[in-house]
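Lecture notes, unit on binding sites. The following record was shown on slide 14. It pairs a sequence with S-adenosylmethionine.
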Amino acid sequence: MTPLPSTAPGSTLAPRRLVDSFGRVHNNLRISVTDRCNLRCVYCMPEQVEFMPRERLLSFEEIARFVAIVAPMGVDKIRLTGGEPLLRKDLDVLVRMLVAIEGIADVGLTTNAMLLAPMAARLRDAGLERINISLDTLDPGRFERLARRPGLDATIDGVLAAKRAGFDPIKLNAVIIRGFNEDDVVPLARFAREHGLGMRFIEYMPLDAGHSWERAKVVPADEILDAVAAAIGPLAPAPDQDPRAPALDYDYLDGGGRVGLISSVSRPFCMSCNRLRLTSDGKVRNCLFALDEADVRSLLRSGAADEAVAQVVAASVAGKWEGHEINTARFVQPDRPMHSIGG
Ligand code: SAM
Ligand code: SF4
């Protein structure tokens, strides 16, 4: 990231870098484009859900304006998410708009891939490079119990279409829940290896709509890593590890690929967090677990100057807390479940 000048204390101008009071520099923006989804994963969404009225969702133009405002403040990496982002019609149009913004080096997508097969080539042509695909199991019955909808075949079709379209890297994301899908760890890791895909395992976090998360349901990253190494082969920490990335990456010693572990619960990585979120209804969140958020939609819609938006974002980052406190008695689960925040 290019070093950017900071603003002098007391200045009325927006700071030119998004640095919080712990010195964490924020360059990574996750944008949720919708709270809607074609699945109902138990760890993310309620079974019955009332979605936001469409007029509350930011338009592509509003999202692009927001990104053009924060790019000069140091944001250079974007990930589109949701809800299911591919439910937003013509998402490739948004990708094209974001890729064209000066300073944006990387636009990625996190998707359940159910609708990816017919869209993959268009998204690639628009300039999307990285795709993360959520796949928690290779068993169709278990898929349906986890996602409360069938869809394994469509997801696999999406994975294969992403490969054909030339995305690189493609990573599979699996949330592992004790008593639900820990038996899938090894088959998923094998599947990823066979197809030349990255595999990332995510610890189950307290962001489910039913507030039924329990610590006993979290399968710690170390246990997952041990299971993969024992069944498939030895792994060693990746030499090119990005210290600010949430995943701890390990490479198979035989060169057969990479496994990442996102250990948000067992080994929180809050002190290296560089992420900021924009929800689909135009709220800035400085943490997945934040209990408050800053509204920028009203500014974007009321003719406010870019500087006013920049000030709100800078203030949100400046006020970021030290970490999520899941492992303390003080932890409070946010009201918004994951699909509504943007994972
Ligand atoms: N619908 C898309 C998908 O599933 O990839 C994008 C949105 S989804 C909210 C983004 C990521 O959040 C997915 O990889 C999903 O598995 C993960 N996720 C959702 N709820 C979670 C939870 N309670 N704990 C850990 N990860 C979660
Ligand atoms: Fe939908 Fe993704 Fe949440 Fe599953 S994890 S319900 S696919 S938003």
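Take-home: The first helix runs from residue 60 to 70.
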